[in-house]
Amino acid sequence: MDKSFYTGNRRSLYTRIQGDAIIVVFAGQQIRQSADAYYRFYPDRNFVYLTGLGNTNAAGFVLLAEKKGDAVTETLFILPPDAHLERWNGIRVKADEAKEVSGIADVAYVADFPARFHKMINGDYGAKLWLALDRLTPEEPLSLTHRFADDSRKMFPHVRIENLMPHLKALRVIKQPCEIASMKKSMEITRAGVLAMMKASKPGMMECEYKAVWDHALTSRGCIVQGFQPIISAGANNFCIHYDAYTGLAQDGDMILVDVGASVDFLGNDVSRGFPCGGVFNDKMRKLYTCAYNTSEYMFSILKPGFPMSEVDLTARRFNFEQLKGLGLVDKYEDVGK
To answer: How does 22-40 read in b/e, with b if 16+ C-beta sit within 10 Å?
Structure first.
């Protein structure tokens, strides 16, 4: 994807926002794992969508934009060159590289962001502050964006804070041709990974070995960052929906369940597949697999625009129940989950 894609995304976002606005989007921070080791940095996808900067050394980057009427000024804040830290953690993005990727002409260093933001927010009392506020549960730790919002409320009580997420979601739900191309490539890589696990599968194989096969299939095709932590389970571990321990042993008669997805240009996919450990379905496996397969095919045939999301799961469960009941595996609807 070239800079016109990211420039166009920002322009579309600015058009959706009514009135004067100050917009701040953070790339995110790296999280410490233990001692001086850190988890691999995974940038905020909305930041990548707007700037194209998703490299491992983008932690701490900030996009700052000010909209007055139809005019927009924007600045990208990046990390400064640092020979010592770059020797430890890798080469940092340079200003000219950031300009070329993002299409943002004004590039400064993150140390300048607080003063620039302070001057901007105090100079425009009519502007609203727009932030990408996204939190899954109340128990989730506050993100950098949420902490920034709290600090801004205290320091600038005159400013009204709005959430960018509805606008970003509305833009990102419609994929552009270049995004669809990346998603198709990601799907091809995911397919290759699933097939590799199926071909390698045999009794006595550890779940972590399936993951090794999956990881190799992706990395050998240039996919370093996955869409999410892969779920790979055998036998009884199938009943833990988000299982990722990889400690189980696959045995003959077990079903292997994989819920995986590659990622290209930070656009991933999510595929679930089940297959018998030894490559051959026994009678019970085949019956259960057929129920699941028929339910999927039925749902694909009836889903269309306007279908209430609240009805999707219920419809699938009802359809599945009738099949399971016909096989004599359940007596009442409540037993489907068992």
So the answer is: bbbbbbbebeeeeeeeeee
Q: Which residues pair with 62 in a beta bridge?
A: 26, 77
**DSSP three-state, residue 97:** helix
Token digits of residue 62: 């900030």
135-153: per-residue pLDDT in tens? Answer: 999 999 999 999 999 999 9
Q: Say which amino acid occupies 284.
A: K
Task: Map residue 268 onto helix, strand or coil.
Answer: strand
As beta bridge partners, residue 17 has none
pTM more than 0.85: yes
Average pLDDT rounded to a whole number, residues 181-204: 98
CB 200 within 8 A of CB 225: no
Residue corresponding to tokens 């932590």: 229
Contact 38, 219 (CB under 8 A): no
Q: What is the identity of the amino acid at 76? A: L
Contacts of 179 (CB under 8 A, 6+ apart): 1, 265, 267
Collapsing DSSP to helix, strand or coil, 157 comes out as coil
Which residue, 50, 305, 333, is CA-closest to 164? 50
CB 255 within 8 A of CB 276: yes
**Assigned token pair, 218:** 């992706």
CA atoms within 13 A on the CB side of 271: 21
Beta pairing partners, 275 = 256
Place of tokens 């999956």: 214
C-alpha distance from residue 263 to each of 101, 181, 190 (Å): 19, 12, 9
Sequence length of the chain is 338
Give me the residue label for tokens 């240039």.
222
299-333 pLDDT tens trace: 999 999 999 988 999 999 999 999 999 999 899 99
With beta carbons less than 8 A apart as the criterion, state whether 1 and 155 touch: no
Tokens representing 132 are 């990408």
Residue 275: alpha-carbon gap to chain centroid: 26
